[in-house]
Amino acid sequence: MKLGVIDVIVSSEVAGIIAHENTGHPSEGDRILGREGAQAGESFYIDLLKDQKLGEIKIGNECVNLIDDPTLPGSAGFYLYDDECVKARPRYLIKNGIITEVLLNREFAYKFETKSNASSRSMGYDREPLIRMANTYFGPGDHNIEELFEDVKKGIYMKSFTEWNIDDRRFQSKYVGLEAYLIKDGMLTEKMVRRPILELTTFGLYGSVDAITKDAEFPMGHCGKSDPGQGAPCWMGGSQVRMRNIRLGGE
After folding, report:
1. What's the pLDDT tens digit per position in 31-45?
2. What global pTM score does this model have?
3. What is the C-alpha separation between 10 and 136, in angstroms, rounded?
């Protein structure tokens, strides 16, 4: 069965890696201004900010909210103050489909003519504090998972992923399903789909989202950055997400 154009519902695990890679990394202020270019890549945000300001850039539908929050109790990325002694708070990177905030430490907050939002983290006393994510996730919507299935005539539920790829500017991305099932006439079936391929730009992903669940899960993650490398524990996940009319690869 060729998949073709189809609706796709992704679990919190898959939504989490999308939130982390397609929003968390391009939101890093040092990456936006090129400081990470030779080490981990750049950010497509720099092109958007040439003509528009934060709070004006529409990147997805109104139901799309991406949050980075170090204050979640018991989370892998938990802290109350960052390594520059700035008090932590939730950062609303995308709110109602609009890019509203980027991750900043004191140095890059000055360059953006604003204040730090407590994004400075170091993995050791002998390592430089860097702009880092904490817990990056899809904010909750208005639906339960059964309601997401009910409105799908033909679709795929991607429960987990086996592979992901994204370009150095965090724009062109690819996610390959590991455990995935066919949705038919509003019902999740037991028929498994082998390696469905979700391959879209960041605008394509967020512009296709039309429904998000109320529930949320937060798989453990580990984020790498810099040279010498610094690994940062984090949560990634949030709610489950439905995307409409996706040209899905695989069969």
Report:
1. 999 887 767 789 999
2. 0.94
3. 16
